Amino acid sequence: MKNRKPLSLRVPQPKYRPGDSPDFTGLVVPEAGSVRRPDIGVRPHDIADLAYGMIRVLDSHHRAVGPWDPKLDPETLRRGLQSMLLTRAYDDRMYRAQRQGRTSFYMKSTGEEAVATAASFALERDDMCFPSYRQQGILIARGYPLFKMMCQVYSNPADPLKGRQLPIMYSAKDYGFFSISGNLGTQFPQAVGWAMASAYKGDDRIAASWVGEGTTAEGDFHHACTFAAVYRAPVILNVVNNQWAISSFSGIAGGDDSTFASRAIGYGLPGIRVDGNDFLAVYAATQWAAERARSNMGATLIELYTYRVEGHSTSDDPSRYRPQDEAKAWPLGDPIVRLKNHLIQLGEWDEERHESANKDAVEQVRASDREASALGTLGQAKPSIKTMFEDVYKDMPWHIRRQRQEMGV
Amino acid sequence: MKNRKPLSLRVPQPKYRPGDSPDFTGLVVPEAGSVRRPDIGVRPHDIADLAYGMIRVLDSHHRAVGPWDPKLDPETLRRGLQSMLLTRAYDDRMYRAQRQGRTSFYMKSTGEEAVATAASFALERDDMCFPSYRQQGILIARGYPLFKMMCQVYSNPADPLKGRQLPIMYSAKDYGFFSISGNLGTQFPQAVGWAMASAYKGDDRIAASWVGEGTTAEGDFHHACTFAAVYRAPVILNVVNNQWAISSFSGIAGGDDSTFASRAIGYGLPGIRVDGNDFLAVYAATQWAAERARSNMGATLIELYTYRVEGHSTSDDPSRYRPQDEAKAWPLGDPIVRLKNHLIQLGEWDEERHESANKDAVEQVRASDREASALGTLGQAKPSIKTMFEDVYKDMPWHIRRQRQEMGV
Amino acid sequence: MAYPQTAPGNGGLIMPTMNMIQALNSAMDTMLERDPNVLIFGEDVGYFGGVFRATEGLQRKYGVTRCFDTPIGEGGIIATAIGMGAYGLRPVVEIQFADYIYPAFDQLVSEAARLRYRSAGDFSAAMTVRTPYGGGIFGGQTHSQSPEAIFTHVTGLKTVIPSTPYDAKGLLISAIEDDDPVIFLEPKRIYNGPFNGRHDQPVVPWSKHPASEVPEGYYTVPLGRANILRSGEQMTILAYGTMVYVALTAAEASGIDAEVIDLRTLLPVDIDTIVASVEKTGRCVIIHEATRTSGYGAELSALVQEHCFYHLEAPIERVTGWDTPYPHAFEWEYFPGPERVTAAMRRVLEG
Amino acid sequence: MAYPQTAPGNGGLIMPTMNMIQALNSAMDTMLERDPNVLIFGEDVGYFGGVFRATEGLQRKYGVTRCFDTPIGEGGIIATAIGMGAYGLRPVVEIQFADYIYPAFDQLVSEAARLRYRSAGDFSAAMTVRTPYGGGIFGGQTHSQSPEAIFTHVTGLKTVIPSTPYDAKGLLISAIEDDDPVIFLEPKRIYNGPFNGRHDQPVVPWSKHPASEVPEGYYTVPLGRANILRSGEQMTILAYGTMVYVALTAAEASGIDAEVIDLRTLLPVDIDTIVASVEKTGRCVIIHEATRTSGYGAELSALVQEHCFYHLEAPIERVTGWDTPYPHAFEWEYFPGPERVTAAMRRVLEG
Ligand SMILES: Cc1ncc(C[n+]2csc(CCOP(=O)(O)OP(=O)(O)O)c2C)c(N)n1
Ligand SMILES: Cc1ncc(C[n+]2csc(CCOP(=O)(O)OP(=O)(O)O)c2C)c(N)n1
Ligand SMILES: [Mg+2]
Ligand SMILES: [Mg+2]
Fold first, then answer.
1. Does D1 have pLDDT greater than 90?
2. Cystine design at A33: which of A16, A65, A91, B338 (Cβ 3.0–4.6 Å)?
3. Does residue B190 have its Cβ closer than 6 Å to ligand 2?
4. How far is CA D164 from CA A403, B400, D147, D161, in A?
5. In angstroms, what is the span from residue C159 Cα to ligand 2's centroid?
6. What is the pLDDT of residues C161-201, one digit of tens each?
């Protein structure tokens, strides 16, 4: 009876560590256009395969192919490209601002710009987004002033959040952008609640939320999926699988054993996996999910397969845990380059226009930064101290008022 | 643009409410023997269909059929039957004890006895169980003294838990039975941790845990599945789908949209669905999962499809929310009757022996109750008051000692 | 005695008698009727009407989208309520027992409580979290806890505890109308009648108590205001929930002329009423069921000491649950009953 | 000054200088070496060595099953640790920031803290939960919180906060060896050097401080014992973590002869040391970074008042973080620095 072999503990390990040469040739990347596009009325159970495939529209010749091609007009594509360029320029500048000591912290979305940008283009302007800290692209795509974003990053007197939040934790209700939380994943079930409220009121607005693949391990992820399924909430639940959660590769979140899109299956939700660096694919998948949601068919879980090109944040040094050239070896390319090539292939863009669009973006960012910096950067100037005691409650209770008095402000 | 139709909120409703005539003819119950039995080395991804089928061994002629027949010898079957009879007799008596005011609370497992009993028979005696409050059958199957269980229910001076726990929240380390918690679901990821510890030590013992279908909505369920998958923990995760969570039908937990076994798929775990009222099926599924776990292949999620025949607890009145005769209409029958009929069909049992086995069980329970009651029931006698201050910490800190002194004990 | 507190303008009408459950039900009924943005959800609250029956009949009356069951995921319940609050609704959620609020703790602390501040008022989430708390029902350690202290440490939350049917309805309506998240703790031991810890005496129903006269319609009891239930000169007793009856009984039994204050709202607490009383009496006893260390009694003790130091003639005493889990068989050894309170009062008087 | 506290039997050997991170690392290294049942896990603690580098090198030294990364699910981390503790291991887990411990709150409160009691000692789960807490690093509201008070309200847990490298190592070893669950809060602001709130002054590294002399091997600092960092006659200052340096600085700057007590363990707190000091000085100031209301200062205030009432010559003062979230740009307005402490000391002296 007791002649059993010893158990052992498995701890998943990434393929490559610093010093290794990353090689992704083994990674199965389906051909663009190869995944079917079911009707939105399909039974989720009947499209389990979509959780394991990968919706891709742009092929290796930069053409848009297959049933998921959203057939966007060139003007829209150009706007999408410009928006991504602006996001990247913004990230670069703010990253440098942090390095220059002008703020405390920053997080880039480099290499993942299509995730936020294409989704914003596919959603309505008044749909409510519950993003993570890596979807600043939404604000930019929706035309939120860079100046205001920067004032928040600098916690200066014009900071709309009055110096209270860590940089990058924007909030912009008028732009359908929910207040970012420092606690991972909490916004996922909140988005479901917002969507339930919209359905409850017979409204026509839907919600969308984003979490990283690492964050899917939080209980909140499960609550979101459960409540979304049970109440058929009009919400799009996005998992941005950028392969890394700070220093932990996606296998630590369970990515070695299944796809994150497949998490949907057990809830009876459709789960679809998308090339997150393909602007057209992200747009098409979001559009499909939005249509379902608006037709009272409920939620969709979308896994956006991408790669975190930069460090997790300005506090991180990725060269300590992954090969320095892993980003370059990443087979899905750069979302900006891919959309640019597509536009060029369409005859609607060229290198010169690209160069000048990029310059425009950089210049726009620089101009906004001048404006924002003029009002002060972190430590130089900030909102009035007495505002620090406001908004804890709608009306200030006695104990906080007395504390404000104690402080003499 | 804004010509969209209004959204609406879906709130799932059960088919039948008090006054309705329940009719389960629409329920798809696969033929006994119809589900394949894959090798334990199978890729979980390749057996997704098992999450939607139902493993059944006993057919309508009471024969054991198909690949999942565990081929147990008649003696084992008889012991299983006796164990279930004892569990039922125990439940009946303790329920009545509560009604007689001899304790505060009780919860029966009537109709679900095979879940705990068959699993106990399939596990090794030193495997660690992390049950919910409805697997008292495990203790009984493992031969834990009824007398001690009753002392716990009565919180009397011989209560092994010293009067501290609500009745039914047993703890028996020596019998591989983890301390029951009042908070639902917490034990699921703890079982994973215990299993990880066993694997870490190169031990050969595995863990098993049980939650109700309602409890699957807790974040802890998700943590359990995630950690079990990532570390390939040697654990069996059981979901007892008895159709009801107090007054909420399984659709409120998401059961209308998918099976609970299918929750496993997204984690890359095998999820198998089993007729929970079929002793042989439960045994076989547990055995399969245990073998996988012992072979370092990791966790299995098992959905046990059954029906909660009685009220949720002595505090509940199910006639307020479901038809009174729903249990009778339930198509999967009674696990005791089904195993009895199988034994009779084998020529290894008969009505008379059954009657006398049942009498034995009732008598055994009665005798234990006499013994336990003699030491006192709730309110009559209890452990010494000073023990109330013990075991908060291993060593009593000063503040608790002073409180004990303040109390004068 | 501050009972009965008849509704303003009630003009001598005979009012129905309600127990606390009925009063809570009536509050929700009233608000569902008045405000289409009010909706109710939680485990078993829909068709069944809740395990304590507080939402009985509301689904039938208002439909399944206004009062419905949820999955058993307290974190999900609070999170979806936050999302709804951010949308503009006023969700009223039930957590079946206060002991089960912990799985939702992060959503309450990091989200509900912080949203207004961190977004500088851009977003906020009005919501009321109703939950039965406290012991006295042989519920064992996971159906008896009193977690109020931890909520009072979470700035951004309000914490309310009623002690009568009248207050329960009026405070719950105020909570629902409040634009900040409110934790509304219901002392389950007094759902059906006041209870003073004399467990060996016959149960008294609410109908015998003046504060069970509850107006049918809309009225409020403001948050942040305590209620002096008994005025007295010799000492001040601070209590809330079930404990106010223990306090009143101890005051009577001891023959000590104690002023008994029912705090009703723990945060923001009614400091003026507390200070005025202790300045008058010079002595203070604080009672609660929760475990002692870092319980809300600690904050009250600190506040009284800070505000009334020069008036205090004896150490402030805390009479509380012991620092153990709530043990099933030791219900009455654990529950801080009138004898323990009386003993503390005597010490404080002699001190 | 109670520094340096050289290890017993050290016999004048020259000891290495460690900052607090190195000392914590050394404690874990020591225990991994000594006890095969000790293992370490948490987000990013494995290959990378933790975002604050506390576990650096341990995976390389002891292998991937003894120090490994986890999914980002704090509830799962604590739950699996409980299961391991129940098996007989001594898990040491890291929660990346104390602000992220809330998702695990139910597992800590309802499970880790209660297991021994509810099973009458049949099961228990030794475990240590390490987590960086507190402000001073411009971390904004979700990287700066001080949640210690809520853990002290949870009977069954111990709460420990070191303030020097020497104590950090000795206390962490004691925590790991303790058979009860210990919440081990690390004041992140002083990981690299003591900090007294004078943010405009140059940073001082630990190497300049006597308590950075940390023995290489095994030693313990017992739980439950405070440390008198400065003896004085005029008043007692109770502090822990980063705040002990603020207290020492305020004592020097004010010219007031204050006794500064570093509590080190909050639960069980060293009541004897506190009482002896306040009985001597008759005055008391309590400081912490956490929000004031229902903070641990409330419990300390209540305890001092209860034990030393007749010795107190002035109201006990609390100097704490304000009852707001920790606002990013107002780091130094929020942080209770030496000026606020000095002002309170003057009030208490005059009171
Ligand atoms: C509840 C909680 N736990 C831990 C953290 C610390 N943390 C911040 S970001 C991060 C990694 C998140 O990874 P992922 O979800 O993949 O998102 P990505 O950064 O890749 O976009 C961690 C662990 C946190 N912010 N909140
Ligand atoms: C965290 C938590 N939430 C709520 C409860 C109250 N409660 C006790 S049992 C129960 C229903 C559980 O249903 P299910 O999981 O289906 O198990 P069953 O009772 O059917 O065996 C509920 C809601 C609890 N004990 N713990
Ligand atoms: Mg990631
Ligand atoms: Mg059930």
1. no
2. A65
3. no
4. 31, 29, 20, 10
5. 26
6. 999 999 999 999 999 999 999 999 999 999 999 999 999 99
Nearest Cα neighbor of B91 from B124, B68, B69, B116 is B116
For chain C, where are the E strands, in sequence order?
Answer: 38-42, 67-69, 90-94, 128-133, 158-160, 182-187, 227-230, 235-239, 258-262, 265-267, 284-291, 317-321
Q: Does the pLDDT of residue B396 top 60, yes or no?
A: yes
pTM: 0.98
Q: Which architecture, in CATH terms, is C227-350?
A: 3-Layer(aba) Sandwich (3.40)
Contacts of A402-407 with CB under 8 Å at 24 or more apart are: A403/D292, A403/D322, A403/D323, A407/D322, A407/D333
Instruction: For residue range B314-348, list pLDDT tens digits in order.
Output: 999 999 999 999 999 999 999 999 999 999 999 99
Interface probe for B, chosen from D67, D80, D159 (most Cβ of B below 10 Å), is D80
* Domain boundaries of chain D, sorted by first residue: 20-212, 227-350
Most C CBs within 10 Å, among D77, D124, D141, D153, to test the C interface:
D153
Chain A residues with CB under 8 Å of B271 CB are 266
* Gap from D11 CA to chain A (nearest CA, Å): 40
Domains D20-212 and D227-350 share a fold: yes
Chain B: partners with 3+ C-beta pairs within 8 Å: A, C, D
Active-site residue (options: D143, D153, D199, D311): D143
How many A/B residue pairs have CB atoms within 8 Å?
A: 162
Active site residue C199: no
pLDDT for C154: 98
Confidence of residue C15 (pLDDT cuts 50, 70, 90): confident
Token reading at B175 = 């019998």
Look at B182 and C140 and tell me if their CB atoms are within 8 Å.
yes
Measured in Å, residue B67 CA sits from the centre of ligand 2 at 35
pLDDT, tens digit (0-9, with 9 covering 90-100), for C114-127: 999 999 999 999 99
Q: C214-249 pLDDT, tens per residue?
A: 999 999 999 999 999 999 999 999 999 999 999 999
Region B17-32: mean pLDDT is: 93
- Burial status of residue D202 (CB atoms within 10 A of its CB: 0-12, 13-18, 19 or more): exposed
Ligand nearest to the CA of B243: 4
What pLDDT is attached to residue B2?
56
Lowest mean pLDDT among B303-307, C1-5, D91-95: C1-5
Distances in whole angstroms, Cα of residue C308 to Cα of each of A65, C250, C315, D237: 78, 24, 12, 21
Nearest to D322 among A167, A382, A389 (CB): A389
Residue-averaged pLDDT of chain C: 95
Residue from C95, C96, C142, C144 to probe ligand 2 pocket by mutation (most atoms less than 8 Å from CB): C96
With a cut of 0.90, is the ipTM above it?
A: yes
Question: Which atom of ligand 2 approaches the CA of B185 most closely?
Answer: 1
For residue B212 and ligand 2, the question of a CB distance below 6 A is answered with yes
Report which protein residue has its CA nearest ligand 1's atom 3. Answer: D100
Q: Which fold has domain C20-212?
A: Rossmann fold (3.40.50)
Give the DSSP letter string of C179-248.
SS-EEEEEEGGGSSS---S-TTSPPPPGGGSGGGB--SS-----TT--EEEE--SSEEEEE-TTHHHHHH
| Backbone angles phi and psi of A379, in degrees to 5 | 95, -20
Cα D260 from Cα B47, distance rounded (Å): 66
Pairs of CB atoms within 8 A across B/C: 127
Distance D31 CA to ligand 1 centre (A): 29
Q: Is A194 on the interface with C (CB under 8 A)?
A: yes
The chain-wide mean pLDDT, for chain B, equals 97
Fill in the amino acid letter for B361: A
Average pLDDT over residues D231-257: 98
**Average pLDDT over every residue of B48-53:** 97
